[in-house]
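Narrative of activities, Objective 1.

The group set out to show that a structural description can be obtained from nothing but a protein's sequence at a throughput compatible with the screening campaign. Below is one input-output pair from the validation batch, recorded exactly as produced.
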Amino acid sequence: MKRFFEAFLAAFLLGFVSDVHGLKFYRGHLVGYDIPIGDTSDVTRSTARISTEYYLQRLDHFNPTNKVHWSQKYFVNDAYMSDEKNVVFLYIGGESQASSYWMSNGAWIEFAETHGALLFMLEHRYFGESQPFSDWSTENLRYLSSEQALNDLATFISAMNDKYELPEDVKWIAFGGSYAGAMAAWLRQKYPHLVHGAVSSSGPLFAQLDFPEYLQVVIDDLALHSQECVDNLKEAITQLEDLIQNPNEDEDLNSLFSFCDDIAESANSTSDLANLFELIADNFAGVAQYHKTTNTLYNINLVCEILNDESKGNELHRLAEVNNFVEGITDDSSCFDYKYSNIIEKWSNATVIASGMMRQWMYQTCTEFGYYQTSSQEIPVFGSRFPLSFFTQMCVDIFGEKFNETFVGEKVQHTNIFYGGFDIETSNVVFVHGTIDPWHVLGLIETVNPQTPSILINGTSHCADLYSSSSSDSAELTAAREQIGELLASWISA
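Output recorded for this entry:
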């Protein structure tokens, strides 16, 4: 029976990996993916009233002499709009291409049905089809910022008020998750005359250059399963470090981890090894950040069960199995690329790709946010090879000498001065976070102002509240959505 179960599980895992082939988690992001994998919604809604439109947007909102405009994509769904047209929901596109999936899915749709809302989703500048330029050269990226994007949203709202002949007392409510969650709060903060309220899900309000707390939360998440899981991971990382520096003919690391290049060639390369260990940490971060939100299999329990299973060999072998599984390496045709030069070449490519996101997002981290998930924890479970200097050097290597650590630090400081960080002053905003989500450290998780309540959902991770409600939801998640619904009702009725 046990052998049958193991065979079944192996086949099931292989099928799962095939389904999400190409899905890659990198520095807090599912690269090129903007919809939940394996969504568990109990309801299928019509897409008949969803349309794709384009708005002629200003390139530079801060220079009135710059008359350049470009085409920004947005989606509309008027299926739930009341005759009064007095409630509008705006889903803010974040650091990936916008997907029409959200125009008929997610908790906000359930709220729209209740309140008769007209629905819009605006794609973020420089992502998806919303491209101001024909390439992403560093020079052309200078108009990519959250401040410009907030102005995009403000001018869009004004234009839609006119286009749809919305009443003067129309109430716009902004929704967003992750970076877009912070944007939703900032939009209400900066444009309270245009936006009546906002739901900020998993939004990192505080910009932080060195962010070791991120991986510390990942470690703490693994410890919720068992301390044994954390201990085995730490031992596996130590074994990998030792074998890279002191090769053993009994352990073929290249085969074990499916490395694309011989690891022996990088034994003395600080940048290659930093990249390798950061990528391994990223895979665990992805499991924690999207624990049970994107697929019931992509979770902490599965990873820890592998790490704790002595039948799979020593700790190093178990780590390799986890890494290959999360990387989606299923056969000899795929491999684990850890070379620093390769990733620099990849993110230095200025060619516009609709599904591309990392070059643009990395530019924003280098010019606004930092958010660098370093290995500077007190107890370095993932080793200590990727400190802050690794990330800031990447800014220099991708965008130029100007983007050094001093420059990035000053930009991060400016962001917090401009928006207020944890001390944001606004009203009619609800901040929602999950205890398992590593990003909650940079968000408001305690209510300090009754006009901006915080909801911390025990046992959930990144943006869990934004997904469609399901019979499999925890009681805590269900209660959080009910609380959000009550707040929306109070704002709209006021």
